[in-house]
Write a structure and sequence with these properties.
Blueprint lengths: L1 H42 L6 E7 L4 E8 L4 H17 L6 E8 L7 E8 L2 H7 L7 E5 L23 H10 L8 E2 L4 H4 L3 E4 L3 E5 L3 H8 L6 E3 L2 E5 L7 H11 L1
Parallel strand pairs: 2-3
Antiparallel strand pairs: 1-2, 3-4, 4-5, 6-7, 7-8, 8-10, 9-10
């Protein structure tokens, strides 16, 4: 009987030993896997960038816009995560960051990526995250366009007046041009050199007179003269004064 008990005891000890070995191996394998993922994440380089705009509000929410030539998904993700280190280096009371990424050299204002991170408990409330290790990353580059060159405005090839000069001529004779703003980012698709938009009239400058004539031939705007096309936005205004002023400038 004692022999049988010893055998059973030895068998039990052997099983426990095997189980312990399995547990240890599992821990080692798990640790290696976690370390590999971490190394892989750390191995993704942060692309060259510049901060083009930033604002920190009173609640500690940091709004930051980056410009980078990269459109690589993993690199943009690394940039979003890198923002946490930048926020810590600021030595400011930053609780969360809301991040926007633009393509460097492009006149388009379409974001290539956006994201948000939390650094503190208050930041968790601001972002809706449960842990400061959580983050949001949204890749906005259209599939198949990752290697496309940045959209740029057309090159000025004429010697006529610029859109800025046309705007100034309207203002010199007190024609309404409320809320004038530069919308040249739309020229990447249109092919214009510059676009100034106001609530009253939009001023399109084209690379050549011939290009302006070609575009206006498709009834694009209200009036074309030289390399300029104007389009009335406020239909309650008489376009004649704007047309006469533009024609006088083009002479």
């Amino acid at each position: 009987m004692s022999d049988n008990k010893e055998k059973k005891g030895g068998f039990l000890k052997g099983c426990l030993g095997c189980f312990g070995l399995i547990v240890i191996l599992g821990i080692i394998i798990g640790a290696c896997t976690a370390g590999g993922n971490k190394k892989e994440e750390e191995g993704t380089k942060v692309p060259a960038y510049e901060i083009t705009e930033e604002r920190l509000d009173k609640s500690g929410m940091w709004y930051v816009t980056f410009s980078t030539a990269s459109k690589n998904k993993e690199e943009l993700k690394a940039l979003i995560l890198h923002t946490k280190e930048l926020a810590k280096e600021q030595n400011k009371n930053i609780h969360s960051a809301f991040i926007y990424v633009l393509e460097k050299g492009s006149v388009s204002k379409q974001y290539t990526a956006t994201g948000r991170i939390a650094l503190t408990q208050k930041g968790l409330a601001q972002t809706g995250f449960e842990d400061t290790e959580d983050f949001e990353f949204e890749y906005k580059v259209e599939p198949g366009t990752e290697n496309d060159p940045p959209k740029t405005a057309a090159e000025r090839k004429h010697e006529g007046p610029t859109a800025d000069e046309v705007l100034q001529s309207f203002q010199n004779v007190s024609l309404p041009t409320p809320e004038a703003r530069d919308n040249t980012h739309n020229c990447g698709d249109l092919g214009c050199v510059k676009l100034i938009t106001t609530e009253a009239v939009s001023i399109y400058e084209w690379p050549t007179v011939e290009k302006a004539q070609e575009v206006q031939g498709k009834n694009f705007g209200t009036h074309q003269a030289g390399p300029i096309i104007i389009r009335m936005n406020d239909k309650s205004l008489d376009p004649k004064a704007y047309i006469d002023t533009l024609n006088e400038l083009i002479k």
